[in-house]
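Human: We require from you a protein record containing the residue sequence and its fold in token form, and nothing else.

Assistant:
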Amino acid sequence: MAVPQADPPAIPILSAANERFMAAAIRFGFRHAGLTGTNPSVATLIVRDDGAGPRIVGRGITARGGRPHAEAQALGEAGTLARGAVAYVTLEPCAHHGRTPPCAEALVASGVSRVVSAAADPDPRVDGKGHAILEKGGLSVTPRVMAKEAASDLSAYLTRHARNRPQITLKMAVSPDGMIGRKGHGQVFITGPIANRQTHLVRARHDAILVGMGTVREDDPGLDCRLPGLENRSPRRIVLDPDLTIEPETGLVRSARQTPLTIVARGDTDADKRQSLMAAGADFVACDVVPGTGRVALPELMEDLGATGIQNILVEGGATVGESFLEADLVDRLILVEGETMVGEGGIVSPIDVASGKQRFKLTERLRFGPDQWFEFERRI
């Protein structure tokens, strides 16, 4: 009877390949952004060189809902080829016991010779402990390879741990004269179809999208993702409605069984109306109101929403909601799309424009989509 032959030892992969494979892992992890619950969308690549150049023998990405983790899936695909190979992981491997053993222990048991990681994990159950397990198990560890790039894609998870709330992205379309619409005229199309499709892609990458009742009354928006093939990536819709004025005939309510709808309202609002909206598929989160303003107390609400597992929220509300988030210093990322359409007299002034955005935030990207300019900013550290 033939004796199975062990796989030959892998050839060490040169450090010059680190960024190449880590960049591929970061791109791979982007596929499940917004789909992994309270866990981040981490990616792992198992790379081996048997003499003909390095090749990927195992790939893994955090599964929808958050389990299983990327490392376990990549090791399962690689099988015995993991022995002597290099694992590229976009976030430090977990070190805590849950329903499954820590990923760091699984990497040690697999026979991987080296782990290259990108972003550090601020979770106190990990935070260096994953790397310590690897090193104790005899593995070579190369941390912080493309850490900044990985942290950008994992920023919602990192923000939730650092600030105890979801990451907030404020997005607004602004006309050349600094307006976001015209009161009483419904939706004003400031940007063109290419930029609008990009907006739907941004929606697909978020757990939730938030507006106020002013936007609901003026526009009766769908707040879903309508890109072909990504319809099932529509985020949860959140409406700030402290006085519970939303009507059952509103499009958001009528579609609540297809795409989740959360209404933020005071706990003492009309119980019968609340019941009818729940029967239509909506759910509720109670809120406090800032005295003298009638506005929702946003810092407390963000903590409550974070406790439900929401990691990032796209704010597409009007001027009042946008101004409220800016005043509360809750905006982590800002997207301003500058269109060519002039609004003119009677327009609603944007609470922030590109010039003031550059003063308050750090400009990270400037793109052009057809006639429209797309500016992305992030919080200054």
